[in-house]
């Protein structure tokens, strides 16, 4: 811990003093001349340095505590997902197609909880994990069917253009006649 702190303390002392001597040479000369001013500046800088280190340590501790709480929540969700999966596997009263769909969804949730390369489509529930991973998990669960990725919907080739034929506009003739008056002289 002290090995990490020493360079920080050194920087906290040297940088402000270097800036002070560069920007205000008169003040730095007064500090150099007076032993009491040197001690005051050293105490102020040391107290700031200690405050920075303590605040940094407190912030790090809070972050670690949040990460532990987040990990505990993920573990809780993961155990609930396992319980749901076991309940779905044991329930043979549900039609087989619905049972398989529930198993696939539970396995997708399991994949999301334990992997970091999750696509937005998978989070939205429109995409499944890789088929190899799904089939490995199905074998581990004792299922005798395999997962095949649903076919990707083909993109619409060309949007259908709907044309509306407007009636031909009626033409009207507008004439403006100007009368020119001439003055008789």
Sheet with the most strands, sense and barrel status: none
How many helices? 6
- The average pLDDT is 78
Number of strands: 0
Shape: flat
Regarding quaternary structure, what we see is single chain
In short:
With 185 residues, the protein is mainly α. The chain has 6 helices and no strands.
Key structural traits:
185 residues, mainly alpha
What would you note in describing this structure?
The protein has 185 residues and is mainly α. Helix content is 65%, strand content 0%. The protein is built from six helices and no strands. The protein has helices at 2-23, 25-33, 35-90, 96-114, 120-124, 131-140. Helix 1 (2-23) packs across helix 3 and helix 2 (25-33) packs across helix 3. The chain is flat and about 90 Å long. The relative contact order is 0.05. The model has no long low-confidence stretch (mean pLDDT 78).
List the helices and strands and how they pair.
Elements: H1 2-23, H2 25-33, H3 35-90, H4 96-114, H5 120-124, H6 131-140
Helix pairs in contact: 1-2, 1-3, 2-3, 3-4
